[in-house]
Amino acid sequence: MTLNILIIIILSATLPSAVVYYVVTKLSANKTSAEPDVSKETIVLESRAKAREILADAKNQAIRLKAETDEELRKSKSQLASQEKQLAISQSQLEEKEKQLASSTQSAKDIKESLEKKREEIDRLYREQKDKLEQVASLTKAEAREQLLEAVDHDLSKEKGKRIRQLEEELKSVAKLRSKEILLDAMRYDARDYVVEYSTSRVKLEDPEMKGRIIGKEGRNIKLFEELTGVELELDASPGTIIISCFDPIRRQIAKEALEHLLKDGRIQPSRIEDSVADATKNIEKTIQKEGDNLCHKVGVYDIPKDVINTLGRFKYRFSYGQNMTEHTLEVTRIGASLAHELGADVNIVKMGCLLHDIGKVISDEEGSHVDIGVDYLNKHGIPTDVVNCVAEHHEDRPFSSLESALVALADQISGARPGSRSEDYESYVKRMKDLEEAANSFDGVDKAFAVSAGREVRVYVKPDVVDDDSTALLAREIARKIELEQTYPGVVKVTAIRETRVSHTAK
Could you tell me the pTM of the whole model? Predict the structure, then answer.
């Protein structure tokens, strides 16, 4: 019976259900009879073989599971042993630190007790010494303290005063030396030879017969040329040379180019004169525009209006005291930028201020000093206020409003004062100053006159009993008119008439 059950279980796991059902039916039908020998049956043999395979697989799986379990158990034991070892080391270190801490605590307690004892000993000695000092000096503690503080204050005051004087002397010495170094470095950036200023230009006359063509019939050619250009031609002043005379350098340059073109062409007549002057004017305008762009590019200033750039281009043909305005502006800008870098000022403002500081000198259709003309011109074109202030203050006509303004003025003075910068000699300078004073003294009612500011101003003191207030204003106007008509001078000359009335009485 047991064998039958085992066979059924094995068959149900391996054979189809129909076969299992057949076997069960057979076994049930023969259960009352004697069990036959089925060991030789094919199905039984297959079932036994299958059972052996299943048992073998189960045994192999059991062996594999046991091996894996043993390996995991071994790893766990190894990790546990390592952790126990690390724990033992940590515990040992902790015990060592506890011992050190206990030793340090004990040492600190000993030191503290020692310090307390010393402190008590010092306090005792201090009280004993204080009592002895009070007995010897017959002073209380407050009185002695007051005297000691007074003595210390007195000594400190002397020491502070002495130290302050030493520091001031050191600072003055260092500042003086440093200022010289800065100025020398700045001046080293640009040192140029001067170019002598002329009010005339010369054109070489190759053929003497051309002189008659220039004059024309009844002088019509030369009159038209002088009318169109605003210059004066001198044909007989120097052999083989035509002298062009004019105080406006641009008009003089236009006349020179136009005359050279006419002489080269040979056809000198009114229509050709008009065309040559017009062409020369256009060429000069282009040159002025190009020179203005080049000047701004060289100094590194770009954000300014186009009209201002064109005005700066006129510097090419303008001279002041023998200095070409373009070269002078480049020199002033380099010096100013160098000083601004050294002193931590705004380099952009200084550059623009140096670039524009003399722009009023090339504006000929306005009256006044070049400073006032330049300030008005820059304000009309929206130049920043900080830059305009630099232009307005570069001759110290008013107090400096910023460090940048002072640096622009200083750079201009360095450029004008360096050796070789200006061509006017001492004798010419003195003569010009004397001529200005003599022109003012030639009027009735003038008490004394002084030329100041390098000839830029004439101060006239009138006799108050001869000239009244209304006549003073008229006198200043007449003196300025006389100087304008009779003398040659750079820039403008300001005439200041001063009338002072003094009344005195004697008390008896």
Answer: 0.48
